[in-house]
Structure formats: structure tokens, C-alpha cells
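Morning F.,

Quick status update on the modeling queue. The single chain you submitted on Monday has been processed. Sequence for confirmation:
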Amino acid sequence: MNRSVIRVVKVGGSLLDLADLADRIRRWLAVQTPAHHVLLVGGGPLVEQIRHWHASRPLSEIAAHWMCIDAMTVTAHMLHDRLPEIALIEDDRLLCQRVGERNCTIFGPAQWLRHGEPWIRGTRLPTSWDVTSDAIAGRLAIVLAADELVLLKSALPVESSTTELTALADAGYVDRMLPRLAGELPPYRLVNLRGALEEEMGPDLG
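C-alpha cells below.
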């Protein structure tokens, strides 16, 4: 039996204020080619508050990093509340079992990032502000041997002529860590989920 296609989908934290976010995600999923979709949710305003604390208190960068990771568990539960038909998983071993079949999973990554990811081969994620949900989704896609990585965001890059990750990081569109994973990443797409019509682009899409 052929294994299911695996598609890791980062749901940007900037999308969490959309009242119809669940319906937009359902519509987007409905038109994708068959796959097991692993949804990883950004920290959104919770992370912005932690950034503020780090800048003004100060809060150490390492403490801030792990607080942001824990915030992603909160937003995973938030998305699950809006999409109750999609299972929420926080155990990476159970996730690895699930991705063998066509389905959809919301993944809370805190346990995996603390106890699993640092010991997995490949480019490991540092504890710094260079790492956001962009790079976490990228690293997860690598570890799962995913067939595709999709970043759902609130806009496409201003300089829409390029999807090269270093240029996107320089423009602040993706984090500083994601380009360092470029040689290991599967094919990727960028999607504007906030627009009236979901626009997308990627290296092969123009």
C-alpha cells in the first residue's frame, strides 16, 4: 500500500482574528489534492505580548522562546475549538501513526520541541527569536518526510516576483531560520488566506 501524501500547513497567527477562519480553512482543504494535512498554528497576539515583555522587562531570550512555544499549544486548542472535526494531537509518536492515512491533524508542538526535535538528525532549531512557527513547520515537514510545506498567511510577499527564502526572510515575510532549512525542505507554497480569493505562489507557481 502506498503511504499517504503528507502536507504540513502552517496557519499564521495573524489569521486568528478572522471570524470565518474555520470556514476559510475548510474551503482551502476541500480543494487540495488528497493528503494527510498537519496543521501547525502560529502564536499570534500571545507571541506579540511575549515580545513586548522581552523588550521591556527584560525577559531572557531562552525563556521567551519557550513561552512562545507554549503559546502555540494555546492557539492549537483555539483552532481545534473552531474546527472540532479535526483531531488535536500533542504526542509526536501518535502523529507519526496518523499521517499514514488521509486525514487531518492539528499538532501542538511543545512536547516534541522540548523532548524530541533536539535529538533528531538534520538542522536543529535554536532557542532564539530567529525561530517562529515558519521554521517550526519547516522542521516538522523535514522530520515527517512531508511531500509539501504550505504557509497560510495574511498576504503574499510585497515583492511578489520572488519566493526565494533568504529574500523573504530579509523582507520579514518569513523568519530568519527558515532559509537555513532550505536544503532539507520539501516543495513549498505561500497562500494568502485573508484575501477574498485565496492567492498562492511558490517556486513553481510564479
